[in-house]
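Here is one chain, start to finish.
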Amino acid sequence: MSLRKSKPYLSVADYLAGERDADVRHEYVDGQVYAMAGASDRHNRIAGNIFSRLNDHLADDECEPFISDMKVMVSPVLYYYPDVVVTCDAPGGDRYTRNEPRLIVEVLSPSTERVDRTEKLHAYKNVESLLEYVLVSQDALHIEVHRRAGVGEWTRASLTEPDDRLALASVNLTLDLRDIYRNVRFDEAQEN
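Its structure:
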């Protein structure tokens, strides 16, 4: 009989303290940390295109967008780094963590798609402030939008045509898919 060696438990306080000086970002799931891998050029273009539009649109708003390096506290034992997040946290809080996400966008890659579509989707749906969770494929023209429709109720919509428009009710902004995928070429081979 062999016993599986368990990973040591890391407290939230130790995680948060270590993340401030870490060279590599880590997501935190109930005492375990998971290193974040680098992203492809497509991934960066898509996240950058969405962030830049949100940043311009929300310039004078109480909510603000962040890209990839801002932690979101999903629960007291769960911290993720979304690719793009719009938060409405009150001023004066933690400079490294946000607690009131309104919109979260994840750009899918082969190494993250399963977690983004299952674990993160389930976890994010329990965040009371979150109104929309958007999954953007980097390998094809495809966007999936999950919208809060009421207490515990969510709807799902897919966009796949170049002329489709992504209406983000959470921030009162509509984006053309052509803008989201600007400078992204699908004819190039891509691994991540």
